[in-house]
Structures are given as structure tokens and as C-alpha cells.
Structures
1.
Amino acid sequence: MFLKQKIQNKKLQLLSIPQTARLLNVKRETIEMWLQDPEVPRLFVGRSKQVRLPQKQFFEYLDSRAKDWPQYQ
């Protein structure tokens, strides 16, 4: 419920990898491992092509994966 309240904000919020890790209380390496999946929504910003995760789409992706997690093992 906490995460759903956070993503109900209408404007697009982009999260860095460290921000996402803190928000989900996981290690940065976990987020980087998830990013190996090409289906993870992400944007590349700036000349350095830093990864940003669109908060709403990323949490929707996690929610859909969590429902069917045995098939991804």
C-alpha cells in the first residue's frame, strides 16, 4: 500500500538506481541484476546515459513479475 500511494502522483518521477534500492530496501546490486532483464522499463539520460527508472512503470513491472514469480525461476 505504501508504494501504491507513492506512485499515484500524476507526474513522471524518475528514480536513480540508488534511490530505487533505498525505496525498496534492497541492495544496489539487486536493482542492477533486475536491469539485466530487457523488459524492465528504463530511460537513459544525459551524455553519460545514466539509467533512470520511471517509478510508476517500474513498480507495475515488479507487481506483474511478483504475481507469476515461479515461472521466472
2.
Amino acid sequence: MLPTRSRVRRAEGGLKTALEMGYSRVHAQGDSKLVAKQVQGNWKTRNERMAKHCNEACQLMDQFESADIGYVPRGHNSEADAEANKGVNLPAGKVCKGPLYGGGGGR
């Protein structure tokens, strides 16, 4: 299991990639209720470094026409986790064209 800060950084990377690919709408899901609630602004972020990453994720989300983040329990999130790991394993500077998994995407 990834540390919470790593989960937020992974979300930041996904948001940056979606922006670079021209998406205007995103729905992110993660298996950390803490991260989802903090990025949504529903829970306070007490750790200074974590707050920095949550603020960066929020600033990225503000650049989309529509963006949200939700919580999915780890046992129900295996497909999204596998796709996120594909993105993490891409060589530096490379992006995956098209939807990463069976969804349509919103460009």
C-alpha cells in the first residue's frame, strides 16, 4: 500500500497527464478516503507537506471544465489501480494516448 503522500502525488501526475492530453473533464478515484476527503476540501489537512500536495491537486482540478475525486474501497478498485500502475511505469516524457481503461473520457 502506498503512503498517503505518494497517493496524492500519483493523483497529481494523472491530472497533469489529463491536462496535457487535452481532457476537459476528469473523475479520479482512489482507495484512500483520507486523500479523497482532503482534496475535496471536506477534511482538514494538518500535515504541511500533505497540505501542499492537496493544494496542488486542487489547483490542477480547477483547470478542468469538470473534475472530481471519489473514494473506492481498495478491494473494489483493482482495475483502476492496475491502470494507474501502467502510467507510473511509462518512461519519462511518454504518455498513453486514449482512455487508459474502458471508459470514454471527456476531451
3.
Amino acid sequence: MGRTLLFEGEPDHLVPAASEALIESNLFRVAGRMLGHTFLHDGPHVTGLSPAVIHVLFNGDPEMATVVTEDCPDLHIRSIIELLEHEDLTPEQKDTVSDLSMSWDLPELTQVQCLLKTLTHCAVVDFFFFHLLKSNCSAPSVLTVQHSC
């Protein structure tokens, strides 16, 4: 028997799965209603979600969400972001980080801490908003990547 996973990642850092099929099927809408009913009727507590996602779900400012590397479910992207935690990068590692940065229209590798924060944020919160809210009639202004350090 197959299962449809709406959230992916590791425990206590789960984020919505990035699947066009899930979005088009309205499963996230159903899950949201279920979460709302659970909250309103003091049902079982939701566990396992990323604190950043919970912050955004409760109308928190996405730019103020505290995102950590563990919130990124894509292990390949996470491994690239974790490269920035090392002091010295090889030329090949710098190219790998630059390629990811450029694919998201972010600046080159100059300010390591700024880029670490920005890449992590893009990998989780901006990705979350793009995939889950792009079908909304009024596209929120948060969809535009505007990060500053």
C-alpha cells in the first residue's frame, strides 16, 4: 500500500513536499483544513514541522523565520550550503557554491555568512512559498527574492 507524503525532511524539520502533483490535487488545502480543525478543537498537537514553517503558517513574516540547514530536505543542496560552514574552500567547492547561487540569482561568493543565510533561506522558505502559494490569486510580495546582509 503506497503513501503520499505531504512533508519531507528530517523529524522536527519537516517542510511541505515540493510536488506539482500534490499542489494541483489540493491535498495541501485538505491538510490545512485538518490542521485548522485540530487546532480549533484542541485535538492532537502537530509535531515534526520545521519551526520556520510553523512561524510562516501562523502569519509570521517569512523574512523573520529562523531557518537552519536541517530545514532543507534536499540533501544535495544542503551539502552545498554546508560547504560554506568551512573556512577554506577549494576552487571546485567555490564553483559548486557559485553555481547554486547563480541558479537562484544570488550574488557570488564574497560574504560567506551572508550567502550561507541567504542560500538556506532560499532553499526552505522561498521555495516553500513559491511552490505552495503560486497558485493563489494574489501572489504575495514575498515571492521575490530580496535578501540583504
